[in-house]
Batch of 3 targets.
Target 1
Amino acid sequence: IKSPIDLFVFIQNDFEFVFGQTFQEKHINYMKARCVEMGQEIFKPIDVAGWQENHDWISTGTIPMRWEFIEYILNRHWAGNKEQFRTFIISLVGQDEKDPKVIVDKLKDYMFCKYDIKEEEQTDAINIFKGDIPDNYFQDGTWTLNYESVPTQVYNLMLFFISLPEFQLK
């Protein structure tokens, strides 16, 4: 199970997103406060060995906090620069990729270490990624990663993935 700090560090390090200027100065205090609420105080481990494996990070009370925490962090990155979501997905799949299934699979593999999600979750992920864009745009090549809605599509897909229980696993 990812610790609260693992959740934050994953988003920060693996996506290399930047926060908006107004949030930049406040994000450390925000992160510390949320981690304490979820049972992990930075620089104050429970003993000299640090936090033990299988620490009880997950409970009925912490799951909603964990989702809100990551959603808020992604939202702050979104507010800071929407285009960084397009830049990230292009770096992951290549400029010329047009197949929503390939894009969804590559982001899923990036976020879940090649974990196979359920077929219905895969279908939901593809539909969330497509959003309101007509299917024929994907079929006839009208849609590309330069399409104006791509940052929103990637953001929405990431929000879906963080809501899956498997995201909580290391």
Note: Residues 82-170 form one domain.
Target 2
Amino acid sequence: MNSKLHNKVINNVDLNNLITETNSIPIGVDYGNEILKVKTTNHEIGIANLIAAGRNRRKLTADKAHPINLLDVDIVSKGKNLGRWFVGGMAFKYSHSRLLNREEGGNKADYPYLIHSILTAIAYCLYNPNNPQSSHNIILGTGLSAEEFWQREEHRTLLYNRLVGEHTIKFHNPIFNNAQTKIHIKDIVVMPESSAAALNYITTDTGKQNDFAYSEIKNSLNVIVDIGGFTTDVAVLYDGDFEDSFGFDSGVAEPMNLIAESLLKDYNIDVNRQQVGIAIRKSKGVIRTRQGDVVDINQIVDEYLQEFTINITSKLFKTLRINDIKKNQINKVYFVGGGALSLQKYLIQNITDLDFQVLNEPLMANVRGYYIAARDKGIQIEKPAVYDEDDIYM
């Protein structure tokens, strides 16, 4: 797989010196099954990928939560009124029993509520309290799982057609000062997941080739593995260039669901898989329930994640063999994605005969690659604020 975009980066073209004809803002969106990530020129955010039908709340006092957890919006997409929606932490707290989140087995491009979350997250990133009524032209970079990208080519067109065009997002919570954001998505770059992470790895913040990363992958075969919620996606780099990408249907949502089910059945603790994932990644296996109780779930986590890691690494190397890549040919495996973050210590325990690394900030690897793809239109970049997953639900 050798695209013009990839070769530009590898050949060290300075993207900041290119000229854009659109004056559009580059934005990257990674529609993760657990967390939706967005990167703009100045910001990186993550929002719990949950939505629910919105409603008027009978509040006597102002909300004290962070604005990212108060996303109560009306959405009009290309002239069609999509209605009122709670998104992210807002949906989790105020419509817990009516949550809509994508389940395993379905394709991403045709998921009915995909655009609701994406448009809301983009509008939140673009919100300016000094200019609550705003309008923006956007070049969007985003992606599909490797298999959906390659096997369902029509889904690239479907995703493009659903998102390109004019959209209006109105914020209801008073904290946003009656904000209304108009978004005109002028163009979209769609990439396979994991390939975007690879692009990010070999590119600096200024759009130039990352010489250190490139020296590690030059003259050898390397693999970037994105462990997501529902899929695991693989990008193959040979001698510093993109060679192939593929994947399989298995992701960290599987053990997270099992852990959540076990907690409910055995301990009467009602949490969802997203909370389990955050407890593992950020809270050292300690979870806070909606009732305010603090529970250590490390023993249960170890049981399920150890077994899952054995299974997924077996599937990974089997998939590589099917694609004519033997383990002894691989110089190094780089893991990214929220799944890699959750499984890091189990990967160390189970992969003993191959050099591998979980890249820094693996949760944001794909969205940064999507941003680079959008920025390849010629828009400049500034170093973003650091994204932190703390308090993603409230």
Note: The chain has a mean pLDDT of 86.
Target 3
Amino acid sequence: MEPGAEPRGLDRQGRKIPGGDRTGEGGAAPAGEARGCITPSLSLPAGAGTEEENSQQKGPAGTESPGRSQSPAWGDTGWVGQQQGDPVGEIPEGAEDRELLPKHLKGQKSAICPDCGKSFGNSSHLARHRRTHTGEKPYTCPECGKSYRQDSHLAQHRRSHTGERPYKCTECGKAFSQSSNLIIHQRTHTGERPYTCGECGRSFGHSSDLAQHRRVHTGEKPFPCPQCGKRFAQSSKVTQHQRFHTGERPFGCPDCGKAFRLSADLLRHRRTHTGEKPYGCAECGKRFVESSHLIRHQRTHMGERPYRCPQCGKGFNQSSNLLQHQRTHRGERPYICSDCGKAFGVSSALLQHRRTHTGERPYRCPQCSKSFSVSSTYNIHRRTHTGLKPYACTDCGKAFSRKNLTRHQRVHTGEKLHRCAECGKGFVRLHHLTSHQRIHTGERPYCCTECGKRFTQLSGLTTHLRIHTGERPYPCTQCEKRFAHSLSLAKHQRTHGAGTSDP
């Protein structure tokens, strides 16, 4: 052994190389075993042979050939870059198990973004990330020209043209174009809600839903309208809001052509054509077109009135009713009829009033074809066919519609909510008070078109008109004589002895 040379079978640190002492004649390793000292999981790159083979790669005066790496690294076929004089098959310290090295290197993020400093495990991930700074979208759809930063996003998009839905739910068979959408959908079957709010503990099936929900706690509204500056917690709400500026109504009804700004509005509208009422009350079975209407209705069973007026303490089961009521305190009537100038505190009241000008009667009874301008009047009329009186008085058992029950119960309580400011007289109904007040004011708003005579009440005018028309709507059942007034009929029936007992 030459001076300074290391014994065969030992590395520079004096460690024994596996298989290093298996030499044949003349101390040379048997043919084919020069690489046998390496574990099967390691394969030497081309040119990494015996010491003699390595020495042939040295340049003049023992210099190393150009291109030899001075630091160990993994090549395409294994570990490369031995230092000059390294024994054949030496495994660098810390790399005995090749399977651990890629995992080790994966944890290192050597590719750093010069724009934001974010680190990545390889240059391709960095290149993809940098497109978020440059705005580059190199992958273009040949169908519609839309561009994407990643080829995987383009592949997903192209399924919208082909209709391909390769990801199918094993529970219900529903198919999706993206695997992520399938995963989200499957939570509807499992009930899984993996995203929990740290503030209130509420759970969500989608991370995006949690992000939106958290803005309820933070008050964050990161999406502004470019037209008016109004801010929103969700980007989709900005898109919807902008349609108020543009007037765009992209969702058209295929039945009547009416267009809507929101798809949800179209869905609700279409139920007017189909008659679908998917939301049913568990208490009475009544069904509704919208879930909000069901919630509102359920408060009639529970007696819940969560919206209370701070001025008078009156409670309401709808927030909109409270807002309308508060206008009675302020005297506010913001809705004005463009035809006659009459003002209303509620938009629905203006809508109903305008039908007196247009003659519109949109609510038609399917039984008798009678039409109505107000939905509540139509609903009351329908009960004449069905005989339905769903609200019973707890005092006497008499059945009524809801509005009439409230009125009837005042008979038992003696309550007279409506009081005359002039004389203090109380009335059960508001229109009775209105009629009474004309005694004090002398107002006679109902005028006969035939003779000009005026009346304080509509019923007085109706009775008077029979003088001109000759109408006698009250017949006697005994002699078929007819009368213009019900009181006249009652007086006449006494001549027949109606209402008297037999001897």
Note: The chain has 16 helices and 30 strands.
